[in-house]
Automatic annotation (TrEMBL):
Domain NfeD-like C-terminal: 98-150
Keyword Transmembrane set for record: yes
Pfam family, one: NfeD
Keywords assigned: Membrane, Plasmid, Transmembrane, Transmembrane helix
Membrane topology: Multi-pass membrane protein
Main subcellular localisation: membrane
Localization terms from the record: Membrane
Keyword Membrane: yes
Protein name as catalogued: NfeD family protein
Coiled coil: none
Amino acid sequence: MLGRIITELGPWSWWVLGMLLLAAELVMPGVFLVWIGLGAVLTGAVSLLLWDAGFWTWQLQSLLFAASAIAFTLAGRRYFSRHETDSDQPLLNQRGASLVGRTAVLAEPIREGRGRIRLDDTFWLVSGPDLPSGARVKIISSNGRDLTVEEA
């Protein structure tokens, strides 16, 4: 079946596949289908040059497509891993870590090492030295949703 489709459409079958994959990347962003689409476009370009050659069978075309898709994927991963830019908000999805250094007032006293503070619109569990309710504390570290505080 694959051989028949490639034979009927000629070298343009790879161009159509490549453009479909590149268009699918727009619908499902993730920068993965781009590399596979580029492999199909490369196979289409080589097919335009070699279509009438007797050795240029659909099996060889599929092999070139698979190899070029893998090569483009590896090259793309290597390129993007080297050129990652630092975010202007590195703690964007780490809310607890972004609170380190802030001060707050204890909403509930710290007893036996555990208490609660209110920051903005959220109550946070805190651990630290025993302190009465209303004492000012400074957040010194974050472990998931639990914060460690010391007297400010």
